[in-house]
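input
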Amino acid sequence: MSTVKDKRGKARKAKKKLDSVGVAHVKSSFNNTIITMTDLQGNVITWSSGGHQGRYKGSRKSTAFAAQLAARFCAQEVIGQGMRKVEVWVKGPGSGREAAVRSLKAEGLEVTRIKDCTAIPHNGCRPKKRRRL
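output
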């Protein structure tokens, strides 16, 4: 693997040029939103989440704004490596789903397809008990 020197003169791994098409996996739960950018073979290029942004902990990780920041971070990483088009695979019931997709579009990635991969039980496992407040 080739190495490149950064601004401070330290050696770091050179980033590979990517295909122009990739996949954005958006997993949105009630507690957090995780965005993973992969190539078409499924190799992870970069990832981010609501909690990975640094200033969000606890219930703030699940907000739409935290998902928007995470998507913006991932989009900037892959655009810098040459990706232009992306398929979005959305999974889960959380509030960050639409915000993440909107943020990917706003950063300049062309969204070619949005696919909902949320798992739906066909009366499988027993659900958790109802929450009483």
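quick obs: Helices lie at 64-80, 97-106.
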